[in-house]
Amino acid sequence: MTARSPASGFVMHGARAAMLGGVSHIEEQVKGIEQAVIENPGLAFDLAKTIVESTCRTILTDRRIAYGHDEDLPRLFRRITHILPVLPIAASGEAEARRSLARTLAGLHAALQGVCELRNAYGFASHGTDAPRPLMESAQALLAAQAADAIVGFLHRAHAQDHTTLLDEQLEYDDNEDFNDYVDEANGPVQIFELVYRPSEVLFAVDREAYRDLLADFVPDAVDAGLSSEPEVAESGQ
Question: Where on the phi/psi map is residue 218: left (φ > 0), alpha (ψ -120 to 50), or beta?
């Protein structure tokens, strides 16, 4: 997976960063659009839409958010921008910055809508028509490709930044006594020969991310209040 410039000279820097960050299955699409902006502008419109759609679906899957396979791309984009944090945690209270970013995201959404319309009207592999259509040229194809690259780059970075921030937060086993007791009561002790371990200790040691996810959904007040016969974990909203 190299960043060598194609013959067109156009490189999708945002999309290539996403490839390196885990969205590797868009590699052939990225290479294709970098060539197509010169050699086949109509195909560039098709691939611009496909690359953004692949990225949106990957992010939703990574975040365990269900979506309909028949949902169109603008709807997928709106869904993602509603769940991704648009500001760093340290600036989460900056109302003016939030409004400015919301306007910027609205502009990206409008650009994405335009890419979809261009693909439908002038894409190399789009819907058939009853008459010849004027061909778009490299300048228009480059605009669509650059818009797609900006969108993919932003979505991937926002997703990766949020995921890294969550994983980097301090998590200490001894700080969560109530949750550890809940896990231990709900599961039998783990025994290996004569050695016996607390289930919560095992979970914390072997799958830290799963421990974090379950801890986030834990509702100690419901347990203390005796609202059920067993301690409860709140249902995820996803």
Answer: beta
